[in-house]
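Lecture 7 notes: from sequence to structure.
We start with the chain below.
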Amino acid sequence: MMIAADVSEITTDALNRLFESAGAELPTVAAVDATALDGGYGYLSRSFRLRVRWTGEGADGAPPTLVAKLPLQARLGAMTPDAVRMYRREAMFYRVVAPDARLRTPKAWVAEFDERTGAAVMVLEDLGAMESFRDDETVSIDRVETALVRLARLHARYWNGDELDRMDWLGRPAVSGVDQVSAERFGALWPQLVNSGAYELSSIQLRLGELLRTKMDGVYEALHAGPESLIHADLHQENLFFDGSEPVFIDWALAERANPAKDVAKLTASCLEPGTARWEQGGLIRRYVRALDAEGVAGVSFEEIERFVHLAMCHYLATLSFLSDRDFAALAEQPEARTDHTSSRVVAACNTEEVLAVVEEI
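Predicted structure tokens for the same chain:
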């Protein structure tokens, strides 16, 4: 298992050993030049573009570039158990799910997980020539709709399915509670967020925040009472590429067995302009429900999914509690310098009477 912390460790011999151990159908690497991708730091990993010269049979048709996704730390002793599970989760997704996911993901030549160290290494298709988006950019509504239709294919494939029981590597927040933010924790967060001045909050948002200080636990209970499928769980715009009009979904480290409405909520709230998200979300949900029906998931109503999406919006709002006191102090001092545009859009997208009404009913 190759665990590289530095570009110099990605050598010709190391790659050939890795491809051989993974059973990758690739010719022999004659030379490789590895460079760190700009912005290639993730929560757990670092990504490198590999420019490869191949030799032997099939060399002419082999991809000239690949992307290697490697652990951010060479030694994993400091990683939390949850973080190590994310390495395994993404490797297992590419092994087990991606070949029959019914949506496009990067081709994975290597998706290896080391049970002894907890490390994973992936060598993936290079999507660098495709359309991509920065955190401060938004996605057009037609592209978001296409992505939702493709997601419906994946969700339908595993909708309340027995196969989920065999995927013990998936996260399952309804059981583990690992992604839940308690009412107590949110109660401590909300005044900090309001007082920071980082966000211009409407009367609706202020009322919603106060309700969630006591009802956040009920929100999760209601959300987890819904259907389950295999979901991405982190669908912001930086995890979407487009090959022409076809979306390609990356970064599956947070894949879960959970309510599919979480994907619908995150995609629409984080990828669209806030005003567009508020006005168009209902229509997008209807399109998603029609796509589910076309994939054989019968008896799911627009009203049911819309309610779950509103509950999931509250979940993503609550995850702002992962900000630290230092973060809030910086936002209070210079709110215009905020760089997490995805969070800003999620906050703005919660500015609806419909979300407020769902929480009031809990």
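Points to note: DSSP finds twelve helices and nine strands in the chain. The chain has two domains: 7-125, 141-360.
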